[in-house]
Design brief:
- The complex is a heteropentamer of chains A (about 230), B (about 600), C (about 180), D (about 400) and E (about 300).
- Helices cover about 30% and strands about 10% of the residues of chain A.
- Chain A has about 230 residues and is of the alpha/beta class.
- The longest helix of chain A is centred in the last third of the chain and has 16 residues.
- Chain B has about 600 residues and is of the alpha/beta class.
- Chain B has four domains: about 100 residues, Alpha-Beta Plaits (2-Layer Sandwich); about 100 residues, Fumarate Reductase Iron-sulfur Protein, Chain B, domain 2 (Orthogonal Bundle); about 120 residues, FAD/NAD(P)-binding domain (3-Layer(bba) Sandwich); about 150 residues, FAD/NAD(P)-binding domain (3-Layer(bba) Sandwich).
- In chain B, helix 13 links the parallel strand 8 and strand 9.
- Classes of the chains: A alpha/beta (about 230), B alpha/beta (about 600), C alpha+beta (about 180), D alpha+beta (about 400), E mainly alpha (about 300).
- At the A-D interface, helix 3 of A face strand 1 and helix 6 of D.
C-alpha cells in the first residue's frame, strides 16, 4: 500500500502541545518593577474563564436527568451550511421532528444541541465556537454530511475546515451529502441513545482538552475580533 | 379594513379536521426512490480496479486499495475502490464513468455513527446492510456515455478490392480519427501489465490526443523499436484487457501505435529520438537472427554503445515478420523503415549466413563478447494423420516463405487448411488470393480443433477471411487425408468436443459419430511451429538446461546456462512479435549487465 | 448591435471584437478609455443594466482582465468590455458612480484579486474573508489545495494505489527494462 | 379631527434626528447612548441563510445597515479552476442550495456554447421541466415564507410540506432530493420514470388548492396587508441604478424576465405571460411571486403535455476525463426564481476552466439595495424586507 | 380551619394549576400542529423540558438582578394565584381571596413584568433590551382597556372582590358578565390577546425579529423558572377572566374547561394572523378595546 497521503502533516497521537505555539503557552514574566505577572495567552481569545469539567451527579439522578435530556433536545437554529435546508422539512408536517422531542431554539443559551449542517467557513467556525461555548452544559453536537467528516466537497478549499472534531467535540455523525431528513432523524435517535447511555459528555471533553481545541482553533482563526452579542 | 379580511384567515382552521400527513415511521416507510443516489455498492467480481472512478471523483473520495482474495492478474489490477464518506458528494459520476458497470449507488441513505473513522469502506467487500439492495442509481439509459463506446472504424480496402492483391488492407487512421479514438482512453494503465513489453500505452495515447506525435514516438521507442511492425501485426493483448472494452469496444491501441509511427518520416527518426553520436564502448555482440527479438536486442545494445552484428540466414531482414506474415498485413517497406533505423545506429547485418552451417556458434563466441540468439520457430509441425506424407500436403510456414521470396508455389483448386491460428488465417487468405488470381474463384476451407469462439486467431482475421470468400469451419479434428490414385481427394474430420482434459493437458476428445468431409486437392498444415536448435553444438548444449517440454531454460534476463549466450524470442516465449521485442530488450539489458560485471 | 460596435470602435478604439451570439459581443478596450466607454454606453446607448464586473487572472501574460458586462434591456443585447491591467500594479479607475452595486464588486475584486480602485467606497473593509494573511486567494499563484492540506487537518489513514504501478509491483516487479 | 387622526398616525420628524454633519452623513456615536448596534445574524432565525446585517438603531428605527457576508464562502470559483469540466458539474451545484438546478444548467450551457455542442430535443424539454420544478419548490417556500417572517408560520408549514412532495418527484426523476445533479454538460441524466406525469399532476392539484388556502390566509389577511403594504418601497429609478432584477423589478413595473427576453431551452415554444405590478413594496413583491407560482404550474403542465417521451438524453461528448474546451469566453443567463442568474465562463483551451464567475441576483439585492432599503425602516420590518428581496447569501460570496 | 391546613390546600391548588398549565400549553401546541397537519410534540414534552432545564449543569449569571428577574416573575405569577379564588363555594380552594383582591391582582400582573424587565436588562443583550421596551409599552396599553373593563365591572357589581363578582354571576349562564356586560367583556377579551402573547401581539419575544426578546440570555434553571411561571400564569389569567366574565367555576372540571377555552381563544386568533409592529399594536389597543372599555363604563355610569 502506498504512503498515507496525510501522514506527515499531522499526527493525531500527540495532541497535547503540538499546535500551541511557544508564545501561546502559559508563562510567568517578571515586570521591570519585579512584579510577577502570570500570562495565559490563549485565555485572551475567548472566555473569561476556562470551561470546567462538571462531574455528573450520582448514578440514579444522572440517569433520570439524561433520560429527560435525551427526550428534550433543543436545537439551536443556526444554519451553518447546505444541510440547513433540510431543517424546515424536519420541522414541518412531513417529518415532524417535534414528536421525537426535537425543538428549535433561537438562542444558544437555551439550546442543548447544535447541528453543524455541513461545511464551516472560517468566519462561521468562529461564530460556531462562540455559540458552542455559550451553550450550557451538557451540550451535544450533531455533524451532518461529508464536509464535517473529512472536508467533503470542499476538501481543498482555503476557507472551509476539513474535520470538525478538531475544533469542537462531535457526538454523532450523519453521512451523506446532504443527508435526508430521515437520516437526520436517525441521527437524533442515535444521539438520544448516546445521551441515555451517559456517553454524550462532549462538554466535559471540551473542558478537559481545552488547550488542544483552542490551539487548533487558533491555528486557523487569525482575527478573533467579534462584535459583542453577535453569534 | 374590510371585515372579510379579518374573517377569511380563519379558514385555516378547517385543517384541524383533515388527516395528518406526517410519515408515521420515517425510517422504514420511505425508501429512497428507484433512482436514488445513496451509498455505494461494488460488484467486486465484475470490477477490474481500473480507477476511472478515482479519476473522475472531484473530491478525491475514492482510493484504490488491495483487497484480500482478489488477485492481480491480466486485466484486473486486484485493486478495488474504497469510498470515504467524509468526501463523497453522491454525484454518482463514478457510477456513470465505471468501465464495467460494477459500481452503483443503492437507494439506502441512512448511516449514522459516532466514530467518523467508520465512514470509509470498500463497497462490495466490507459487508453493509445495503449490499443486497437492487434499487438505486445505475448508469442512465439510453445512449448516455462519458466516453465513446464504439471504435472509430478503421478505413479498409473493400473485399473486392483486396481479394486479388497483396496490397495492405488497413489504411491507417487520419489525424482526426486517431484523436477521436485516442480520446476514448480512460488512462487506467491496466493494459501495460498485459503488454509483454510493458509499453507506456496511456502515455502515447495521451500524446496522440494532444497531437504531440514526437513525444508519443519517443514513448514508443522506450520499449519497442519496431513500432511500424507492431502497429500492424501485434497480437495486441493489451486490447483484450482494455477497460473500455468491458462495456463498449476496446481501444484500437495497435492502430494508434501505427498512427504515431506512420506520422514520422524515416529521416526524422534520429532527430526525434536523439540517437546521434552514441559513444561506442568497444565491445562487440553478435545476434543470431534478425527477427523481432534479434532486432530489438540489437537496437538496445546499439543504444548502449555496443557494436552489434546480426547474422541472418535469409537474404532479407525481419525473420518471421517478413517471411511468415503476408504482405497485405505487413508491407515490406514498413519492415524496412523500422530496420533501417536500427541499422542507422551502427548495427550490421550479415545476410545469407546460417549460423550453425555457414558459421558456427563457437566461432561467434570467440569473435564476440556475447551472443544473443533469437532464432525463432521455423519448423512446421505436422498433424501426423494418415496421408500427411503426400507431396501436396504442405507446411504453411514453407508456403509463406516462398510467397515472400516470390517463388512459384502450387495452388490447387480446392484447398483445406488445418489450423485455427493467425498463421492458418494468413496462409488461408494468401492462398485465397492466389486462387482468385489463378482461377478467378476461391475454394478454401480452414478448419481447426477449436470451435468458433475459442479459435486462437484474431477475430478480425476470421471475419476478413470470410469476407474474402474463404470458408472457416472450425470445431473439427482431422482424421485422415483421403488419397485416391495418388491424388488428394479431401480431408475427413470428426467433431471435436473438447481439447484439453481436466488437468489442462492437450488431450482432444472427439464425437466419432459426427464426421465431415472436406473436399480438397491440396492440404496445408498450420498447427504450429517448432524450434530448430541444431546450430547449438553439443559442447555448448551441455551447458544449457533444457526442460521437460523441450525448451531451453533461461533466466529472467534471458541468459542461458552458457553465460555468454543469451537466448530469446519465439523459442523461449511466444510465438509473437511483441514477446520477441520484450525478450530482446531484456536480453540487451542482461548482456550489458553481463559484460560490465562478468557474471 | 453592429452600428453600436462600429460607433464605439471609432470613438474608443476598441479591439478584438468577438460576436459570441447575435446578442452578445465581447470587445477589448484600453484601460484609460474603459470608464468613459462604459459611461457612453450607459447614457447614450441605454446599456442601463450592469450584469457583472469581474476579473480574470492571466498570470502567463502578467495581466488581469477586467470584464464589465452591460445589458440593454430594451434592445435585449449585451456587450462585454474587457480591459487588461498590469498584474504587478493592478490599479483601475473606479466605476462606482455609475451604478451603486459597482462598489461591492470592487470590494470583492480588491479582496480576492488585490486590484485597487481608488476612491471606491468601503474598498478596504473586509467583504468575505476575515483575518486573511495570504496572497489574495483568487490569484492563480495561490494554491488552495496546498493551503488546505497544510492548514485544515485532513483525516489520516487514506492512501491510494495507481493501478499501473500496483500491477507492476505485483506482476513484473523486477522487469529490468523499466 | 385631523389632529386626532395625526395622533394615531404619528410619524417621526426626520429633520430632527438622527443628527447629520454638514455633508449629510450620519453622526453615529455609540457612546452617546442614542444608538444601539444590533447584529442580525449570522445566527438569527430571521436571516435568509447564513449572513449578517449590522444595524445601527435609533429606538426601533434603523439609521444605518451594513451587510456582512462570507459566512458561507467556499471559494467555488477558485475550486472550479482546479477541477475538470465534468468535476465542476457536481461542484457548481452547491453554489445555491435552495435552487441548485440553475447552476447545473448554466454550467452545462456554458460548456455547450463554448464547445458548440447541440443537445437532444428530449434533453431540452427535461431541462426546462427540471428548472421549472426548481422554481416551483423555491416558491413554495418563499411565498408563504414572506408571512413566516411576520410570525404567520402556518403557510410555511403547508408550503414546505408541498415542497417536499415536489422534492419527491425530483428524487424520482433525478435521483437526488436537494442536489439533483441532473443537467450534465451534453444532456441530462435520465428519462421520466413511468407514471411520473400522473404523480406530477396530483402534486400540482394539491398546490393549486394550497394557493387558494394561502390566498385566504395570507394575501387577504388584514394584518399581513398592514405589515407589508408600503414597506420596503423600491422606486422605479432604482431598478437599473441598483441592478434590481427578477420579481423585484417586475413588482416595480419592469417587465423583465430572461425566459421571455432571451428565450433559452424551449421557453419559446411555451405560452406564458409575465406579471407586473407597480407598487414595488413587500406586498407587491409577494404577489408577484404568487403569480410566478401560478405561471410555473401552468408551464409545467404545458411541458408535460408537449414533451417527447423518449429519445436520446445526452449527445456524445468527448471523453469527460480529458475534455478540452476551446479557448473563449461566454456569458449565459437564465431566470431563477430570484431573477437573472448567469455564468461568465472563460476557457483557456485546457481541460480546466480558467474562470467561472456567477452573477447572482442577490449580489446586488442583498448588499447595496438592502442596505439602502433598511434605512429608516423599523427593526421589525428588517426581516420582512430582506425576505421580500429573496436574498440568498451563498450566491453573493460563493 | 387553621392556616397550616389552608397553606397545604393552596400548595395543592398550585400543584394542580401548574400541571394543568403545562398540559394546556402542550394541548395548544398539539392543536396548532393539527392545523399544520402534523402531530406535534408528545403530551409529556413540557414536563421533560422542565426537568431538563432544572437539570442543566452550568449557569452563567450576569449579576444579582439577573437572578432576581425570574424570581420576580415567578412571584408575580404565584402572587396572582395566591389571591385568586379558584372554585366558587369551595372552602379549600379560595386561596387568600379578600375584598380588594381584584386591584391587587392587577398590580401583580405588572409586578412580574417589571421584575423581568430589570433582570433581562442586566443580561446585557440588545435583543433583551428591545424586547423589554416593547413588552412594557405593550403591557401598559393592554392594561388600559383591561382596567376600564374592571372598573366597569366594579361599577356594575359594586365590588372589587372577585369572589363577590363570581357570586353575583351564579344562577345560570344568563347572569354571566359576558351577557350582562358584553362591552366590558369584549374589551377585556381583546386585551387578553395581548396578555397571552400570541400573534398578533407576540412582538415581545418575536422569534424572527429579536430572538427572543427578554429571555434571550436566560437559560437552564432561570428558564425553567420562567417556564414554570408561564404555565401557572396562563391558567391563572384564564381563571381570572373566567371569574370575571364567565361565571367562575364550581368544580375543577368546570375551571379547567373554561380556562382551556379562554386560553384557546388567543391561540385561535394567533394561528391565523401575523404580528403587529409595536406601534401598530399600541395604536390598536388604544383604539378598539379602549373604545369598548369606555362604552362599558358609560353604560354603567
Amino acid at each position: 500500500m502506498s504512503e498515507d497521503k496525510n501522514k506527515n502533516i499531522q499526527d493525531i497521537n500527540t495532541p497535547d502541545d503540538k499546535f500551541i505555539h511557544p508564545e501561546n503557552k502559559p508563562r510567568t514574566v517578571i515586570s521591570p518593577e519585579g512584579e510577577e505577572i502570570h500570562i495565559e495567552p490563549l485565555r485572551d481569545y475567548f472566555l473569561e474563564k476556562r470551561p470546567e469539567v462538571i462531574q455528573p451527579k450520582s448514578d440514579a439522578v444522572e440517569k433520570f436527568l439524561n433520560w429527560a435530556r435525551a427526550e428534550s433536545i433543543w436545537v439551536l437554529g443556526f444554519g451553518t451550511g447546505c444541510g440547513s435546508i433540510e431543517i424546515p422539512p424536519l420541522m414541518t408536517p412531513r417529518f415532524d421532528a417535534f414528536r421525537y422531542g426535537v425543538q428549535m431554539r433561537p438562542t444558544p443559551r437555551q439550546s442543548s444541541a447544535i447541528i453543524i449542517s455541513g461545511y464551516l467557513a472560517i468566519k462561521t467556525l468562529k461564530r460556531v465556537i462562540r455559540v458552542y461555548e455559550q451553550m450550557p452544559s451538557p451540550k451535544y453536537v450533531l455533524a451532518l454530511g461529508s464536509c464535517t467528516i473529512n472536508g467533503g466537497m470542499y476538501w481543498d478549499s482555503y476557507n472551509t475546515i476539513n474535520r470538525l472534531d478538531h475544533y469542537i467535540p462531535v457526538d454523532v455523525y450523519v453521512a451523506g451529502c446532504m443527508p435526508r431528513p430521515e437520516a437526520l432523524l436517525a441521527g437524533f435517535v442515535q444521539l438520544k441513545k448516546k445521551i441515555k447511555e451517559g456517553r454524550a459528555e462532549g462538554a466535559n471533553e471540551y473542558a478537559e482538552k481545552f488547550d488542544w481545541y483552542k490551539g487548533n482553533q487558533k491555528k486557523i482563526i487569525n482575527d478573533w475580533n467579534m462584535p459583542d452579542y453577535n453569534w | 379594513m374590510a371585515l372579510k379580511d379579518i374573517l377569511t384567515p380563519f379558514t385555516a382552521w378547517t385543517n384541524v379536521f383533515k388527516p395528518v400527513v406526517t410519515i408515521k415511521d420515517p425510517f422504514n416507510d420511505r425508501p429512497g426512490a428507484e433512482r436514488y443516489r445513496g451509498f455505494h455498492f461494488n460488484d467486486t467480481s465484475k470490477c477490474i480496479g481500473c480507477g476511472s472512478c478515482e479519476a473522475i471523483c472531484e473530491n478525491e473520495a475514492i482510493d484504490l486499495v488491495p483487497v484480500e482474495g482478489i488477485e492481480t492478474k491480466d486485466g484486473d489490477s486486484g485493486l478495488r475502490p474504497r469510498v470515504d464518506y467524509g468526501r463523497c458528494c453522491w454525484c454518482a459520476l463514478c457510477v456513470d464513468v465505471c468501465t464495467t458497470a460494477s459500481l452503483r449507488l443503492t437507494n439506502e441513505y441512512t448511516w449514522v455513527t459516532e466514530n467518523p473513522e467508520d465512514l470509509r469502506y470498500t463497497p462490495g467487500v466490507d459487508v453493509k446492510p445495503w449490499d443486497n439492495n437492487e434499487l438505486g442509481w445505475k448508469k442512465p439509459e439510453p445512449n448516455y456515455h462519458f466516453f465513446g463506446q464504439k471504435r472509430v472504424s478503421m478505413p479498409e480496402l473493400h473485399p473486392e478490392q483486396r481479394d486479388k492483391s497483396f496490397i495492405e488492407i488497413v489504411k491507417g487512421y487520419s489525424k482526426e480519427q486517431a484523436i477521436l479514438e485516442a480520446d476514448r482512453c480512460v488512462e487506467c494503465g491496466i493494459c501495460i501489465a498485459t503488454c509483454p513489453a510493458h509499453m507506456g500505452i496511456p502515455d502515447y495515447i495521451r500524446a496522440i490526443r494532444e497531437d504531440n506525435i514526437e513525444e508519443g514516438f519517443k514513448i514508443l521507442y522506450d520499449t519497442n523499436p519496431l513500432p511500424e511492425i507492431c502497429g500492424r501485426i501485434c497480437t495486441h493483448k493489451c486490447e483484450t484487457v482494455c477497460s473500455v472494452g468491458n462495456l463498449g469496444e476496446a481501444l484500437s491501441i495497435r492502430w494508434l501505435k501505427r498512427y504515431i509511427a506512420d506520422q514520422v518520416e524515416s529521416e526524422d527518426y534520429k532527430r526525434i529520438l536523439q540517437s546521434d553520436g552514441i559513444a561506442n564502448n568497444g565491445k562487440k555482440v553478435a545476434v543470431v537472427g534478425s527477427g523481432p527479438a534479434g532486432l530489438s536486442a540489437a537496437h538496445y545494445l546499439a543504444l548502449m554503445g555496443y557494436s552489434v552484428t546480426i547474422y541472418e540466414q535469409f537474404s532479407q531482414s525481419g525473420g518471421m515478420m517478413r517471411y511468415g506474415i503476408p504482405e497485405y498485413r505487413l508491407p515490406y517497406d514498413q519492415i524496412d523503415k523500422d530496420v533501417n533505423y536500427i541499422l542507422s545506429l551502427g548495427v550490421k547485418i550479415i545476410y545469407n549466413t546460417n549460423v550453425g552451417k555457414d558459421i558456427s556458434l563457437s566461432e561467434l563466441k570467440s569473435k564476440y563478447d556475447a551472443v544473443f540468439a533469437g532464432t525463432g520457430l521455423h519448423l512446421g509441425r505436422s498433424t501426423r494423420i494418415p496421408g500427411t506424407d503426400h507431396k501436396h500436403v504442405y507446411q504453411s510456414i514453407d508456403l509463406l516463405n516462398k510467397i515472400t521470396e516470390g517463388k512459384e508455389i502450387h495452388v490447387a483448386e480446392n484447398i483445406v487448411v488445418i489450423g485455427g491460428g493467425n498463421v492458418a488465417m494468413d496462409i488461408t487468405r494468401s492462398l485465397a488470393r492466389l486462387q482468385n488470381i489463378k482461377y478467378g474463384k476461391v475454394s478454401i476451407i480452414a478448419t481447426s480443433l477449436e470451435d468458433e469462439n475459442s479459435m486462437p486467431a484474431d477475430r478480425e482475421e476470421v471475419v476478413e477471411a470470410r469476407e474474402e470468400m474463404a470458408t472457416i469451419n472450425p470445431g473439427w479434428g482431422p482424421k485422415e487425408i483421403l488419397i485416391e490414385d495418388g491424388n488428394i481427394k479431401g480431408l475427413r474430420v470428426v467433431k471435436c468436443l473438447s481439447i484439453f482434459d481436466e488437468e489442462g493437458r492437450f488431450n482432444p476428445k472427439f464425437d466419432e459419430s459426427n464426421t465431415n468431409f472436406f473436399k480438397a486437392d491440396m492440404i496445408v498444415e498450420s498447427i504450429g511451429q517448432g524450434m530448430d536448435i541444431e546450430y547449438i553444438s553439443e559442447d555448448i548444449k551441455k551447458d544449457l538446461e533444457i526442460n521437460n517440454r523441450g525448451r531451453i531454460v533461461v533466466d529472467e534476463l534471458f541468459q542461458s546456462g552458457a553465460k555468454w549466450l543469451f537466448i530469446g524470442g519465439d523459442i523461449i516465449q511466444g510465438p509473437d512479435v511483441i514477446h520477441g521485442i520484450a525478450n530482446g530488450h531484456k536480453a540487451a539489458v542482461g548482456i550489458d549487465k553481463y559484460l560490465n560485471t562478468n557474471i | 448591435m453592429n452600428d453600436i460596435i462600429q460607433d464605439i470602435t471609432t470613438r474608443f478604439s476598441v479591439t478584438d471584437i468577438i460576436n459570441k451570439r447575435e446578442n452578445l459581443t465581447f470587445v477589448t478596450c484600453r484601460k484609460e478609455n474603459t470608464i468613459s466607454l462604459i459611461t457612453h454606453l450607459r447614457d447614450r446607448e441605454k446599456f442601463t443594466h450592469l450584469v457583472l464586473l469581474t476579473a480574470v487572472d492571466w498570470i502567463e501574460d502578467n495581466l488581469f482582465q477586467l470584464t464589465y458586462i452591460l445589458n440593454n434591456p430594451t434592445k435585449k443585447i449585451d456587450i462585454a468590455i474587457r480591459t487588461m491591467i498590469p498584474r504587478d500594479n493592478p490599479v483601475m479607475e473606479s466605476a462606482h458612480r455609475l451604478w451603486e452595486q459597482v462598489a461591492t464588486y470592487q470590494r470583492e475584486l480588491k479582496e480576492m484579486f488585490g486590484i485597487e480602485f481608488p476612491d471606491s467606497p468601503r474598498l478596504n473593509e473586509p467583504f468575505i474573508l476575515e483575518g486573511w494573511n495570504e496572497i489574495p486567494p483568487y490569484r492563480r499563484d495561490f494554491d488552495t489545495k496546498k493551503y488546505s492540506t497544510e492548514t485544515y487537518f485532513p483525516r489520516i489513514g487514506r492512501g491510494t494505489n495507481d493501478p499501473e504501478e500496483y500491477m507492476k509491483s505485483k506482476l513484473y516487479p523486477n522487469d529490468p527494462t523499466k | 379631527m385631523e389632529k386626532i387622526k395625526n395622533i394615531f398616525n404619528w410619524e417621526p420628524d426626520r429633520s430632527l434626528y438622527p443628527e447629520k454633519d454638514e455633508n449629510g452623513n450620519l453622526i453615529v456615536d455609540l457612546s452617546s447612548q442614542k444608538f444601539t448596534k444590533v447584529w442580525h445574524g449570522p445566527n438569527h432565525p430571521g436571516t435568509t441563510g447564513n449572513m449578517a446585517i449590522e444595524l445601527t438603531l435609533s429606538g426601533d428605527e434603523v439609521v444605518e445597515a451594513k451587510t456582512h457576508v462570507g459566512y458561507l464562502h467556499r471559494g467555488f470559483e477558485k475550486l472550479m479552476e482546479r477541477r475538470l469540466y465534468i468535476q465542476c458539474f457536481p461542484t457548481c451545484v452547491r453554489m445555491c442550495v435552495a435552487e441548485p438546478d440553475y447552476n447545473e444548467y448554466l454550467l452545462a450551457r456554458s460548456v455547450e456554447e463554448l464547445d458548440n455542442l447541440e443537445i437532444p430535443e428530449t434533453a431540452k424539454w427535461l431541462r426546462t421541466l427540471v428548472l421549472e420544478m426548481a422554481r416551483l419548490q423555491t416558491l413554495l417556500r418563499t411565498v408563504p415564507g414572506q408571512a413566516g417572517t411576520l410570525s404567520l408560520g402556518m403557510g410555511v408549514q403547508w408550503g414546505v410540506y408541498l415542497r417536499d412532495l415536489v422534492l419527491d418527484l425530483f428524487e424520482e426523476l433525478t435521483g437526488g432530493r436537494v442536489y439533483h445533479m441532473y443537467i450534465i454538460p451534453g444532456g441530462v441524466r435520465g428519462l421520466l420514470p413511468d407514471g411520473f406525469k400522473k404523480r406530477m399532476e396530483d402534486v400540482l392539484l394539491k398546490i393549486e388548492d394550497f394557493i387558494v388556502r394561502i390566498d385566504n390566509l395570507i394575501f387577504k389577511n388584514i394584518l399581513f396587508k398592514k405589515r407589508t403594504i408600503g414597506i420596503g418601497h423600491i422606486p422605479a429609478e432604482w431598478i437599473d441604478k441598483y441592478g434590481v432584477v427578477g420579481p423585484n423589478a417586475r413588482a416595480a413595473g419592469f417587465k423583465r424576465d430572461v425566459r421571455k427576453d432571451y428565450p433559452y431551452l424551449v421557453y419559446d415554444q411555451l405560452d406564458f405571460d409575465i406579471a407586473t405590478l407597480t407598487d414595488s413594496d413587500v406586498y407587491a413583491r409577494s404577489l408577484i411571486r404568487r403569480q410566478d407560482l401560478i405561471t410555473t404550474i401552468d408551464l409545467i403542465r404545458q411541458i408535460m403535455a408537449k414533451m417527447p417521451n423518449d429519445g436520446d438524453i445526452k449527445s456524445p461528448t468527448p471523453n469527460v476525463l480529458h475534455w478540452k474546451i476551446p479557448k473563449g469566453e461566454v456569458y449565459v443567463r437564465s431566470e431563477s426564481s430570484r431573477g437573472e442568474y448567469g455564468f461568465y465562463t472563460v476557457s483557456d483551451g485546457s481541460e480546466y476552466p480558467r474562470r467561472i464567475n456567477l452573477r447572482g441576483p442577490s449580489y446586488t439585492h442583498a448588499v447595496v439595495l438592502l442596505e439602502k432599503l433598511l434605512i429608516n425602516a423599523n427593526i421589525a420590518d428588517v426581516h420582512s424586507i430582506m425576505v421580500s428581496l429573496q436574498t440568498c447569501p451563498p450566491e453573493i460570496e460563493r | 380551619m387553621d392556616i397550616i391546613n389552608k397553606l397545604l390546600f393552596v400548595l395543592l391548588g398550585l400543584f394542580i394549576i401548574l400541571n394543568f398549565g403545562l398540559f394546556m400549553g402542550v394541548s395548544m401546541r398539539k392543536i396548532v400542529a393539527r392545523v399544520a397537519r402534523r402531530n406535534g410534540v408528545p403530551f409529556y414534552q413540557p414536563w421533560l423540558d422542565l426537568i431538563k432545564l432544572y437539570g442543566t449543569r452550568d449557569q452563567i449569571s450576569h449579576g444579582i438582578m439577573f437572578y432576581l428577574g425570574p424570581v420576580f416573575r415567578l412571584s408575580g405569577g404565584v402572587g396572582i394565584f395566591l389571591f385568586m379564588p379558584l372554585i366558587f363555594g369551595s372552602q379549600y380552594f379560595n386561596n387568600f381571596s379578600f375584598a380588594g383582591d381584584l386591584v391587587l391582582i392587577l398590580y401583580f400582573q405588572f409586578f412580574g413584568m417589571l421584575g423581568m424587565a430589570l433582570g433581562a436588562g442586566e443580561g446585557g443583550h440588545p435583543y433583551s433590551a428591545i424586547g423589554i421596551s416593547r413588552g412594557l409599552s405593550q403591557f401598559t396599553t393592554i392594561e388600559v382597556p383591561m382596567t376600564l373593563a374592571v372598573i366597569s365591572l366594579g361599577i356594575q357589581y359594586n365590588t372589587l372582590s372577585i369572589s363577590e363578582i363570581v357570586a353575583a354571576q351564579q344562577g345560570g349562564f344568563q347572569n354571566w358578565t359576558v351577557f350582562t356586560n358584553p362591552f366590558a367583556t369584549a374589551a377585556a377579551m381583546l386585551s387578553l390577546l395581548g396578555a397571552f402573547g400570541h400573534s398578533p401581539f407576540n412582538l415581545v419575544k418575536a422569534p424572527n425579529e429579536i430572538p427572543i426578546g427578554p429571555p434571550t440570555e436566560y437559560h437552564s434553571t432561570f428558564l425553567g423558572v420562567l417556564q414554570t411561571n408561564a404555565a401557572i400564569l396562563h391558567v391563572i389569567e384564564a381563571v381570572l377572566f373566567m371569574n370575571l366574565f364567565f361565571g367562575g367555576a364550581v368544580n375543577w372540571f368546570e375551571l379547567m374547561l373554561k380556562s382551556f377555552l379562554i386560553y384557546f381563544w388567543s391561540v385561535f386568533v394567533g394561528v391565523v394572523f401575523p404580528r403587529y409592529r409595536i406601534e401598530q399594536s399600541v395604536q390598536w389597543f388604544l383604539k378598539v378595546p379602549l373604545l369598548l372599555g369606555v362604552i362599558a363604563i358609560i353604560i354603567y355610569m
